[in-house]
């Protein structure tokens, strides 16, 4: 046999929850690196992102899904389909909630979706760093009335509290299986995708409400230049020319800041010097145009 060694386990785990509960933060904490962008704006994550966690005993491939919510545009529709589709393909689902906020319509809607699947669902109570420990039990009772959860685990995704417990518990739900990804690989997404997301993240962080949902970023070129410098050219799409003005800023100040912060993150990610060029283009109503969504990588 294998000298009494336990077999290697592997499986897929989806992270679901309404916007801003900390799904991307949790995945980044688990993976230990920044692959899914984070911000305090809802609908930050638009594509399904895989995060790969590998130890000597197991490999868990996490799917950080765009939030499940009622769609209001073609992009919203894509995001919802992508999240719901993920749930039936996985070995376990982490239903993330924010303990510092009331159980709301968004949570109930997701629980309704979770009732339709056979997959074990963990109730993960996130942001415990924001509440008194005594506040947890009443919250757990409220959720337990609505669904029968396989496990209930309080965590702080931001600080990392109890995240190893969560991983250990997940391990118990995995079966013997292969390594899907090499041990040193942390994401299935090409570098271009992460770079585009980093640019979008900076815009989300630096601009106000109106802009975030109106932008898309496309990497047009990426190649090695002189002295190991990587040249990256990216286009930021906005829906209206007034938004173009905001993204560029007074005398280009906003775009300059976006570029500086994104470049610093990219240099850490790629481990090389980056020369980043940004353009801003108006593409009216891109969120509702199928052809535009396709060319930006949103596929059904
Ligand atoms: P997502 O929309 O579910 O992916 O949420 P994000 O991961 O983008 O996080 C939304 C916001 O919540 C960000 O500002 C995070 O820093 C914050 N956040 C996430 N997890 C925690 C946590 O455990 N504690 C606290 N205090 N904040 C958190
Ligand atoms: K968010
Ligand atoms: Mg997210």
UniProtKB/TrEMBL annotation:
Name under which the protein is recorded: GTPase Era
Annotated InterPro entries: G_ERA_dom (IPR030388), GTP-bd (IPR006073), GTPase_Era-like (IPR005662), KH_dom-like_a/b (IPR015946), KH_dom_type_2 (IPR004044), KH_sf_prok-type (IPR009019), P-loop_NTPase (IPR027417), Small_GTP-bd (IPR005225)
A GO molecular-function descriptor: small ribosomal subunit rRNA binding
Function description: An essential GTPase that binds both GDP and GTP, with rapid nucleotide exchange. Plays a role in 16S rRNA processing and 30S ribosomal subunit biogenesis and possibly also in cell cycle regulation and energy metabolism.
GO-annotated cellular components: cytosol; plasma membrane
Membership in a protein family: Belongs to the TRAFAC class TrmE-Era-EngA-EngB-Septin-like GTPase superfamily. Era GTPase family.
Region described as G2: 43-47
Pfam families on file: KH_2 (PF07650), MMR_HSR1 (PF01926)
Sequence segments annotated as region (G4): 126-129
A biological process from GO: ribosomal small subunit assembly
Organism: Cohnella fermenti
Residue span(s) of domain Era-type G: 9-176
Domain of life: Bacteria
